[in-house]
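Support request from a user on the community tier.

User writes: "When I paste my structure tokens into the form, the page sometimes reloads and wipes my input. The last time it worked, I copied everything first. Here is what I submitted, just in case something in the input itself triggers the reload:"
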């Protein structure tokens, strides 16, 4: 049944996700007295701990907007997760984007479940995450613009560029190779996973990054899909080479 709450605490959302509303009081008592002990106290419901961690990780890495007692969450300060709050539209958008095939009943109406709703949900999620996308893509945009402005024979073989390496063996800041390495590092970061195995960004692969850039910056010269695919592939290759050096 669809919930009419305007907001949720992470443990509330995890309980409803697992369809354990009948055991809510028991679970909340354990969560308040022994934070992080869900798996120990409720081994019969392993997904409860898993789903709670997924939600909290999404908040920590900026994928799921949330507040702490009505204010911003300072991730450098230890705070009790029990007081984190997630707005219903933000939680809906995160589910539509990250787990589009699950659609838990407390967020999604079974009667209105059809293909058009999935597309609308993804669209709304992208709009809600626009600020996050812009911050991540702005750095790529600046770096790519610098690469486009330095189109030269040296880009095909950066080792032939003047001043490719200093006497100490380090690349100067304006070396074309360094720009490729920076882009490759950004791609590796965005497409990588945390130590807990969670994605670091909302992008699952390079194609998703390219699609987002072309959608958000359709009128920027040099940001065509063909150019981005070629430059990103080269950047990842150069980054891999730099890592082996």
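"...and here is what came back when it finally went through:"
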């Amino acid at each position: 049944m669809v919930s009419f709450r305007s907001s949720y605490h992470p443990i509330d959302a995890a309980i409803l996700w697992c369809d354990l509303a009948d055991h809510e009081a028991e679970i909340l008592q354990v969560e308040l007295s022994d934070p992080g002990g869900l798996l120990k106290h409720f081994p019969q419901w392993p997904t409860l701990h898993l789903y709670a961690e997924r939600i909290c990780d999404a908040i920590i890495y900026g994928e799921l907007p949330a507040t702490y007692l009505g204010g911003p969450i300072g991730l450098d300060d230890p705070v009790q997760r029990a007081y984190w709050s997630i707005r219903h539209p933000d939680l809906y958008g995160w589910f539509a984007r990250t787990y589009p095939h699950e659609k838990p009943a407390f967020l999604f109406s079974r009667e209105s479940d059809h293909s058009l709703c999935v597309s609308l949900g993804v669209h709304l999620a992208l709009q809600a995450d626009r600020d996050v996308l812009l911050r991540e893509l702005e750095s790529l945009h600046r770096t790519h613009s610098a690469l486009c402005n330095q189109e030269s024979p040296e880009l095909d073989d950066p080792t032939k560029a003047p001043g490719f390496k200093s006497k100490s063996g380090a690349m100067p800041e304006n070396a074309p190779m360094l720009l490729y390495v920076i882009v490759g590092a950004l791609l590796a970061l965005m497409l990588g996973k945390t130590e807990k195995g969670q994605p670091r960004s909302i992008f699952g692969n390079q194609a998703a990054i390219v699609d987002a850039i072309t959608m958000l910056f359709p009128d920027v010269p040099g940001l065509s899909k063909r150019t981005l695919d070629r430059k990103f592939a080269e950047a990842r290759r150069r980054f891999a080479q730099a890592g082996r050096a």
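Agent notes: The reload is a front-end session timeout and is unrelated to the input. Residues 130-149 form the longest helix (20 residues). The beta strands are 7-8, 67-68, 84-87. Escalated to web team.
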